Amino acid sequence: MSTLFTKIINGEIPGTIVYEDDHVVAFKDIVPFAPVHIIIVTRSEISGIAALPETGDHIYLLNAAKKIAEQQGVTNGYRLVINQGEDGGQTVEHLHVHLLGGRPLAWPPG
Ligand code: AMP
To answer: What pLDDT is stored for residue 57 in this prediction?
Structure first.
């Protein structure tokens, strides 16, 4: 069965896609925590950091994040977050990076 994010990638459920290439797809988070909150997801269904293969689509995530940050105009800074597992707050088991920006972000996170 496909993950929620694969269904967005395939257009089976709606999503506002802002970037895509051969390896990753990015869309707006449905519950944004910041003026810019983008989910950048691997096309392949890697369940998370704990299941990371040696190589694959995930190696393109950071370069995509840089491009998307430029595209979104978050010139004053931004944060990239990957949640892993229950304690990490992961709710969708399909590897993704949150790109957050557009306001000052508190540190440390809760
Ligand atoms: P995480 O908790 O790190 O696994 O992140 C999952 C993210 O996916 C959350 O920030 C959700 O708001 C977001 N999300 C869940 N469903 C959708 C959806 N249909 N479209 C866009 N983002 C979603």
So the answer is: 98
Confidence of residue 110 (pLDDT cuts 50, 70, 90): confident
Structural element, H or E, at residue 42 = strand 36-42
Give residue 47 CA to ligand 1 midpoint distance, Å.
14
Instruction: Please state the domain extents for the chain.
Output: 4-101
Active-site residues, by number, are 96
What does CATH list as the number for 4-101? 3.30.428.10
Q: In what order do the strands lie in the sheet with 78-81?
A: 17-20, 24-28, 36-42, 96-101, 78-81
User: Is residue 29's pLDDT more than 90?
Assistant: yes
Bridge partners of residue 38, in order along the sequence: 28, 99
Q: Which of 3, 91, 97, 99 to mutate to test the pocket of ligand 1 (most atoms within 8 A of CB)?
A: 91
